[in-house]
Each structure stands twice: as structure tokens, then as C-alpha cells.
Amino acid sequence: MNPINEFNRRLAGKITAAVSTMWCAYIFAALALISLPAAIKTGDVVVIVAWIAQTFLQLVLLSIIMVGQNVASASVEQKINETHAASLGEFELAKEARELANQELAELKIIAQEIHQVLRDVEGKK
Asked: What distance in Å separates the CA atoms of residue 94 and residue 98, rounded to the nearest whole number?
């Protein structure tokens, strides 16, 4: 992989990991609240709405949504792992059942051969 692409991938991963925490959401909320008094002081509804939408919501919800996605992903991953483990268990049981069935079939073949031999012996004595 190209060294620049590798660097970008690692940097993006670290930034994403840092931003997708509730601590980052708290920091963003505090940062956004710094400009709230100035927005309120204007008395302009458009400025206050813009502050809410463009400053507070965008900053804070970004981190919160990412945290929520991480929680949802972890839940899905846990379900996948549980399903995988259960499937492996069922597979092992099916393998054991197949082995047992093969053993029983082999025993039945031996019994059938013995029965045929007994029938041949009986026919031969007649």
C-alpha cells in the first residue's frame, strides 16, 4: 500500500475513534456553548436558530450519532458471534450424528451379510 494512503488511513482511524466518544460530544457541547451568549445577545431569531442548527447540533450530534452507531455495531457483532457459535455447535452435532449413522449402517451391512449367509446355508441344506 502507498505510504501516503497508509498514513491517511491510520490518521482517519484515530480521528474517527476520538470523535466517536461521548467525551468528544461533551467537549463539542462546551465549545458550542461558548458562542451561545453572543447569539442570544443579538436578539435575532435567525441567528439563534442558526447557532442551534449550525453550531450546537452539528458539533454535538456528530459525536453522539457515531457513538450510537458503535453501540449498534457492537450489538450486531455480538449477535453474529452468538449465531456463529451456535451454528458451529449444530455442525458438530450433525457431524457426530453422521458418524453414528455411518457406524450403524456398517453394522447393518454386516448383519445383512450374516443373514444372507444363513439363508444360503439353509437353502443349501434343502
From this structure: 6
CA separation for the pair 54, 34 (Å, rounded): 14
Looking at the structure of the chain, the number of domains it has is: 1
Q: Give residue 124's pLDDT.
A: 80
Q: Mean of the pLDDT values across residues 45-68?
A: 91
The domain in which residue 121 lies consists of: 3-125
| Centroid of chain to Cα 57 | 28
DSSP states of 55-67: IIIHHHHHHHHHH
Q: Phi/psi at 2 (nearest 5 deg)?
A: -60, 135
Dihedral sign from CA coordinates of 58, 64, 69, 70? positive
- What does the pLDDT look like over 77-111, one tens digit per residue? 999 999 999 999 999 999 999 999 999 999 999 99
